[in-house]
Amino acid sequence: MNQSAPINSTTAAIPTSPLAIPAYRLFWAARFAAVFATTAMVVVIGWQTYDVARASYHMTRDHAAFQLGLLGLVQFVPLLVLTPVAGWAADRFDRRCVGAASNLTDMLVAVALCVATAFHWLTLPLLFTLAALHGIARVFSGPALGSIAPNLVPPALLPRAIAINSMAWQSASVIGPAAGGLIYAFSPSLPYGLAAVLLIASALGILALPLMKRPELSRHIHPLRQMVDGLKFVRNERFLLGCITLDLFAVLLGGATALLPVYARDILHVGPEGLGTLRAAPALGAALVAVILAIRPIEREVGAKMLWAVVVFGLATVVFGISRNYGLSLAMLGVLGAADMVSVFIRSTLVQLNTPDMMRGRVSSVSGLAISASNELGEMESGGLAALLGSTGAVVFGGVGAIVITAIWAVIFPELKRARNFAPQYRDSPPQDNHAFEPAKEPVS
User: Which of 140, 153, 177, 353 is deepest in the core (most CB within 10 A)?
Assistant: First the structure.
């Protein structure tokens, strides 16, 4: 591909597959490396937090599980505070630089954890502090990287690109946790060292992407006003609001991953190696579905299928919660991940196609906040409920809650059920820039 001139329908043929675009392939590889690194880190941080709480602080099983909830909370607080800033930065500055800087920040966290583990300096305060820094890196990474892919492919290929991008995320999420658990059993500090190397490689790959055309934010409007405009845009677009908040509340209640260290150590008795496999099982199910969606994307009755996918997610969570068989638990986690992938694919495509490019960073930040809130606050909710109801009760309660939330959202957001295909559902907002595929002629300040 000639990067020296703009690409349009008159100078070059529009590719028929995202993988035919060199820049998209590089972006895919960079995302894979970063997700591999961070998921390997997260599974080890979770194990170490639970293990330190039990072994060094002599906590009971349920009180140690509550520490896992606190671990999620300390990662969420930076996301809550900095999300408007991160979304504005993704729309104001070069998204490649923002994404690379985020990866390099996470690399420093990995190095610190590697050293602390090697010299046996781990304490709960240190783990919580580094987890918070990891949360800061993530809040800036999500909007920047989430806004890059739509500018690397033409709009017609966006659903397929999202599915293939999900393959990078999910396949790395399969390999990363499993590798993290296995490598940790061999050398506790080594997973963090590997993560640091991968995060550097990912940052370099992102910086090597071509400069992409993006709209200029007005310099005459105060940054705080521009941040608020992003929040108002989502609030006023009921379709986007329904998509984003469905994931927020359903996964917040239905998330079982926070308690996987409890299941691995004290319920299923499979140790850190088994924990890595348990963490990888949802991603394996999701990766298999992502492959199918990349070949044959969902095109009809997308809204109803998204809602039913969340119901299946809740049912699988309930069965996992009561299971005491390792094989059945793995199977339910796989089903849970597959259902979540269907929901994520549909929701991500709808959000991207219903957001103008000048708003993508800020809308991605709001969507990322919802996803992170569902994950991190879900961990807090699971840990808190585990202290009250026990680990099994917390997981089952969450699965039932996800089903109830889906039924409520189907009623209060009928726009979701009425979405027949991926055509933009605009009412008040402008359509996306159909020339977003063209790279910029000049650097954007």
Answer: 177
